[in-house]
Design brief:
The protein is an alpha+beta fold and 207 residues long. The chain is built from 6 helices and 10 strands. Strands 1, 2, 5, 6 and 7 form a 5-stranded mixed sheet that branches. Strands 8-9-10 form a 3-stranded antiparallel sheet, with no helix packed on it. Strands 3-4 form a two-stranded antiparallel sheet.
Length: 207
Amino acid sequence: MLLNHYNGISLLFKGLIVKNFRELPNNSFEVSLEMSRQEQICPYCHNKTNKIKDYRIQNFKDAQIFGNYAFISLKKRRYFCSHCHKSFTESNPLIYRYQHFSSRFYALVYKEFQSMQSFKAIATRIGVSVTSIIRWFDVISFSHPKLPTCFSIDKFKGNAEGEKFQCNISDPITHKVLDILPSRTVENLCAHFSNIYTKEERNKVQI
């Protein structure tokens, strides 16, 4: 079973070298990875270099593997540029700089946001704190939809930003919700449309 997992994990971390892999007692995996050594382009002077200065170990949590979470230990090289005498860390496809979770882990969290459920339910299933889930949710940014030729405005009772009623903007022809605004006041509605949409876009609305 361990050999089958090892072969599967080698395929999951394509482009990386699996140095060690073991199953933990809490039904999770611990994987030691390393990038293959390659000639690097210095991000400062854009010259090529292959001189290693030292190594750094970065530990982080990855998304589920075979239904269990994986804890990654990535050995990263720091290269030295002999042209500008500066050092830099090699880039990798798994995690961004200064992060504690892999990009695949964040993708899993954002996928959870697509279904109707509480922050606590997501945090329990993912294995992080509720405050982390709320913080990640708050940084999601969606582009505003284009204004159709016909749209409708309606209020509904809520509690966002201290307001008793929120505003629902929808397309009555396609029956799709275009946007949800925290306030239904005329001042906030005018500010919303004037700040986001140009005059040409607003003039396209007929009804």
